[in-house]
Amino acid sequence: MSVDLVGFLGVVLVAYAVPGPDFLVVVRSAAEDPARGRAAALGAQAGLCAHMVAAAVGLSLIVTRSPVVYDAVKLLGALYLVCLGVRAVLAARRKAAGTGAPEDGGLPPGAAVDRTGDGRGRSGFSQGFLTNVLNPKAALFFISVLPQFVDGSGSTARQIFFLGALDVLIGIVYWFALVTVAARLRTLLARPKARHRWELTTGWLFIALGIGVAAAP
């Protein structure tokens, strides 16, 4: 098996450097709780694994070549992002109305959430997974970009699995490093007013991303 590893690694690193919906999910989750951030990162990569398997067996080709299926997946992904954003904005406004969003003091990030640590982890994983699995551009990567680095004389499916697995592993390292950095926001967000602004900002960003995904060709 001979693949263009240098070229592929360059494309993957550039792709991860450009923030997308999964970036926002991971950062927002990590700011609430590092464990939730890592769960969101693993969920995002699990979503890529789903696209990798679909590409290897040919299902992604059906999605991308069928306008109806492609648009359905795209709109579902957009709707999910908008829902995440609306939930964040409404939650921020409810907390502000209930607490007055004082300048100082208050509970640390995530303390007001009535969930166990395992519940936060599952929620983070599902958000990361759904964000990527409902992103048709991820499917396009695996069936249009990735095959450009495949050696036509070898097994295409096996090479797709190899390159896809490499992509996922690189992503895990990248996301976990990002979680370590983003987790430092917890100190800043311990102040209710700062957390209120953070939740509003990230909520509106989710909504904007969802609208952008829906409007994209």
UniProtKB/TrEMBL annotation:
Residues annotated as signal peptide: none
Keyword Iron: no
Membrane topology: Multi-pass membrane protein
Protein's cellular compartments: Cell membrane
Positions in coiled-coil regions: none
Residues that span the membrane, as ranges: 6-27, 39-62, 68-90, 129-149, 161-185, 197-216
Predominant cellular place of this UniProt entry's protein: membrane
Pfam family, any one: LysE
Record-given protein name: LysE family translocator
UniProt organism field: Streptomyces venetus
